[in-house]
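The freezer alarm interrupted the setup, so I double-checked each line after restarting. Inputs confirmed:
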Amino acid sequence: MTENKIRVLMGKPGLDGHDHGAKVVVRAMMDAGFEVIYTGLRKTPRQIAEAASNENVDVIGLSSMAGSHIPFCQKLKPLLKEYNLEDKLWIIGGNVPKKDHEALQKIGIDAVFPTGSHFDDIIDYIRSRYRQLV
Amino acid sequence: MTQKKIINESGIEVKELYTEADVEASGGVGMVGLPGQYPFTRGIHREMYRKRPWTMRQYTGFANAKDTNERFHYLIENGQTGLNVAFDLPTQTGLDTDDPLAEGEVGRVGMAVDTLRDFEIAFDGIDLEKITVSLTINGSAAILIAMYLAMAEKRGYDVAKLRGTAQNDILKEFIGRGTWIFPVEPSIKLVGDTIEYCAKYAPKYSPVSVCGYHIRESGATPAQEMAYAFCIAKAYADDMLKRGLHIDEFAGRLSYNFNIFGNIFEQVAKFRAGRGLWAKIIKEDYGAENPKSMWLRMIAAGGGGGLTIEQPENNIVRGAYYALISALSGTQTMALCCYDEAYTIPSEYAQRISLRTMQLLIEEMGLCETVDPLAGSYYVETMTNDMRQKMEETMAEVEAEGGIVKMVSEGIIQAKVSAQAYEMQKDIQSGAFPKVGVNCYQIKEEENEVEFHDYNIRDAEQQVENLNAVKAERSQAEVERTLTQVKADAEAGNNVMPAIVEAVKAYATVGEITTKLVEVYGTYQEPIRF
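Predicted 3D structure, all chains:
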């Protein structure tokens, strides 16, 4: 049986330009056989929602390094509804301190992968959730 | 039993033992020389730290100009000898505080700047002759340099004698760090405008600090870090030559910013090799005659890429070793990433530990007593030769692929360093590349190990109020007149710095000036390549 390729959008929200982490995770996902679309830097919430919708992805990933993850996710949340993306897996990684994890989960983020997370854990998580979704 | 080969990050094999024969085989001691003399491998000054220790310049800035000014005074009272200003992301990307895209980012990772008024407040009470100021600004650097010069002039300083540095290395922003605004070609043109303007009106000011630093953070090896930085500096120098300047009119004010994490001996060899290679390039390829043009003046600093979120207190110890590397490298300026920096904007306490780390080396450890103390070590001299050769090979590869500007424009360098970063991350995750506290000697970690810097939304609101107050006071006619001139000069291909200086003096905002330039130059479209 051939499994459909899992499609992931990796977004870089906000003004920060530190993309080392986003890019290595994109490569890890590509190596795992996922179809990955990387947005590039400085995307607004609407640009990310639009890209996720146009690309028909299964997973929306965000990489945040400069501390603005909570306000950004608060702005993205209603757009996910507007673009009919509420059933997509929504994950975030980067410099996201533990004290913010609960707030992010309340907004609707499915999982947080802070700096130091292993590629295998991210990929296994996406695979297992994807099987539940389809 | 055969021993496992040891290859350093730059790809050079490290032998079990080095002797005089290895130094000879690697090229001999022809490039060693004496400090203060060509090729400057041992240092750009004869006496180095005997005369004056390195400048200590911790990276600082948050919230608004007032809060940042208070931290500046705290650091100076604690013995810091220079300032290194961190700006928030809206300022770095040319947006005003009240821009919708700035929402949630004002004052978060650095000080918010909208107009000259913010600079007046930020540097209030600071003696700009005693304390040199480095501005970590790139995409909007032309505007912020203009603000610095205008602020100093208003305070009564003679701009012709004013010292200081702006990072203003846009090519590396396309590779790592990402605060670009305009497309590649006009971005290089803007850097050229600042170099040309400073050569004429502020000849003691360093308008560019070419950064291997962030390229290394993005995944480059130490040899690539320096080789790519030299390729970038050459691109800026070539633009100056096209404008009709002689190399000796500007090369002496080019400076560098390099990273200090990694293997101690590989790093020290990197700096020694780089000094000799840069001197050789400027003398032989560019025909410089003034020895000062050949100096590799630098800040060897940071080390952020080596610090870990795990067991953050280990970062204090790493920082001490990085400081030792920096001291042994013969740097002009030092700054250290703080132990809490993988989490947050450093606390006063963390900043003080970094400052004391550097002061300990100066006062207690004898690092300033003799020049280039590792010279003559068979290992260090061989590695210095090997690193120089590696850098030359890397520079030749860039040339063969069409040059650094082409490679950056097409995203080739970006893809190359991020592929290397991925391989390194895999090696860290598998344990092949040891990282203490991360893949060996781990402990069950406590939560909230560090004190977090509070982001106060009220600071951003206050900054909008300040901006509105300045807008109400300034002459709108003068703002419009000067902004029209900025656009006209950009369209005509003139040097835009004189017009930007006038606009800044009229309290035009960072966003207003950037908008005029964008109308002419457009914005950068990032190439996505894996």
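Quick read of the result. The longest strand of chain B covers residues 254-259.
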